[in-house]
Amino acid sequence: MLPNCDIISQDDFFKPESEVETDERGFKLYDVLDALYMDEMVKSIHNWMNSRTCSAVVTEEPQNTCDSVKNTEDVYILIVEGFLLYNYEPLNELWNRRYFLTLPYEECKRRRRVYQPADTPGYFDGHVWPMYLKYKNELEENTSNIVYLDGTKPQEELLSCVYSDIIQELKKLREGGLMA
Prior knowledge:
alpha/beta; two-stranded parallel sheet; 5 helices; globular
């Protein structure tokens, strides 16, 4: 859908299990910044920004592409996805757009993916959900310009919303002469 688009996933920067702290209940603390090589993630983002090349360029004509996105060989888009992106100060200066998917407790628990080995009993309620609430509250208090998305909406609706927003952002950048 978006030409010249790459993705960096925060999950690719987890430390090995042996380096992840365990709390007093025996829960591995994966939902904290210390469980990730965040400096490496920042370095990867900077490397991408400095190279301005894509490893996953769309080679076929996307369906229903807005005319303003066609012929955008000079436009590169990096999508960085993760769960603690906006809580790490060195990253905050890099974002053009910020999206945060919200989910109520029951839906989040229902969607929790199955890990191998499986989560320790009580891990979601004792660690995952409280950390989600903690970081969400920090975002609401300390970070601006976040588009909150209702994660209970259909994926197609969420994609359409984000896609439209990115297209509008590209138009604004072009009109303002900020495209490099």
